[in-house]
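Here we describe the complex-level prediction in full. Unlike the single-chain runs in Section 2.1, the two entities below were treated as one system.
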Amino acid sequence: MPHDVLLAEATRGNRVESRHYGAAVVVDAAGKTVFAAGDVETAIYPRSTVKALQALPLLTEGAADKYALGPDALALACASHQGEPAHIAVATEMLARTGRDATSLECGTHWPLDARAARALAASGEQACALHNCCSGKHAGFVCLSCATGHDPEHYIRPEHPVMQTVARTLEDVTGVPHTDANRGTDGCAIPTWAIPLRALALAYARFATGQNLNTDRAQAAAQLRSAIAANPFMIAGTNQFDTRVMQDLAPRVFTKMGAEGVMVAMLPEKGLGIAIKCRDGGVRAAEATAAALIARFGNESSPVLTHFMRQTLKNWNGQSVGEFRVSATLAEDCYPSIAS
Amino acid sequence: MPHDVLLAEATRGNRVESRHYGAAVVVDAAGKTVFAAGDVETAIYPRSTVKALQALPLLTEGAADKYALGPDALALACASHQGEPAHIAVATEMLARTGRDATSLECGTHWPLDARAARALAASGEQACALHNCCSGKHAGFVCLSCATGHDPEHYIRPEHPVMQTVARTLEDVTGVPHTDANRGTDGCAIPTWAIPLRALALAYARFATGQNLNTDRAQAAAQLRSAIAANPFMIAGTNQFDTRVMQDLAPRVFTKMGAEGVMVAMLPEKGLGIAIKCRDGGVRAAEATAAALIARFGNESSPVLTHFMRQTLKNWNGQSVGEFRVSATLAEDCYPSIAS
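The structure predicted for the assembly as a whole is:
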């Protein structure tokens, strides 16, 4: 099994201060590996990177139609949002369409991840609720799916609930990897997460990006979700977030989705490619830098946002430059020679 | 040069999800290496771990006496605090003793790192100022040092200012490593930070812990700072922070100080030892787990707080166990066999 590679590093003054290692893979919808670096075969937990795959049944099972979910709601169902007012409004409306509210969400409560949103909520005298959980859009989608298919949503987070069974079968089909008790863990928002090889994660998104090797219903659902996300990049994350910034600039040619513990996926529909990255230490910043570099190279994209995430100046609280965070020289030379000084 | 070693890992379900590599070293005040793992010779930026060393001139130059700084102020001068009301009150008072206020601080402004403190500040309708910067106690100390020694504090953050010259000479003497333009970077709070080998950082703290190989003034100042920190572990960090929790339990036998980008130091005065750790990817959680294990082993300490940081259950937002974060099996076996299951 190949060793992990240097993905990205932080510098300060004239030295490298910190280094991140991990793996990255680019595959097409037929399963051909276009690029691989590091260990892409060991199973990893994809965490929130599979949200768009988990949202497929929302369309294929008729829930989106039944509750007339618009593109903003479909995008939020695929999101790790920052708990900003626009996110909360859409999640609230999704639940209202089923006649339910935040008490049906089983994701748990945390304060908005966006610091300004958290302070504004506190200043208003309100408390955080499950709607502010970064996964509330996905969970509102599960409630919609449950209600639309005639199941009581209570305990929808459990592996044996019909909603989670439908989600598991979808993930299994699209990734080509069995989803069983043997590879099941529990995610931060309480639903199951199944460990799969990084290569299988990239393959699933090559299929999602193109519709190839998906059945007709899923291919149509994937196209509808891509369209919804491309039209609503703010819904998928929020202010100043990587996914939002990249897709505001480059969708629908480029889609990205971060996951906890340094996982990242991207899709390049026009190129027919899916990308998956795992920073082995869980470092999100390294997964972002690597994703930017691979998108630049394999998407043949050039954009200030990508350049920023490949090589950004680090500033102190006075705004002075103190160093930079950059994709590793090896990946930079491979991916975007102009920034490899 | 030895390769870095596995310091700590996060698990989920029945798998390892993320891994952190780095280096750790334990030395005595004579410079004898008691334990070393990974690359302990390459220079690293010690970041906030040197704050107690930077505070020595506050005592040796007479500023603490002149302004009658109490143990809480001395501890805050060594702190990376969370911006909680008690921290702000002490920093404000330190500046007031010199006839100055927050406008003399050159560390820059950010909102309190403690989320509750940030929300409470927002709810009160106030804005963050330089006092909330996690380094404001250190900077208030620099203002005190500058005023006490007859220098205008303006631009005290610059390498050529008398305050920073005094600090640099102190660091140079105590660590035994030249502090020049060649190894100088700029820290997040705008003052210089000089890269030194991890081994030299541990040596400096073995000296600080014991007074050995320090001149008499510095040895007395170190003892006074140790005493101040031991009496005020909340001042050094804040609610739920590693340093505060460990020292509330184990000071004055154990001192710890975290730094940005995964650096950590500890002192075991009764054992005559200094400890320094660098998690190569910058992961604070791994530096904490490693520090806990090395303190348990080389301090011969047994405490629920150390056990917690060596092997803690990770919970989701519903409070369910989903995995654990733990020091690597190798370090655990070396350091604390009872937790290496």
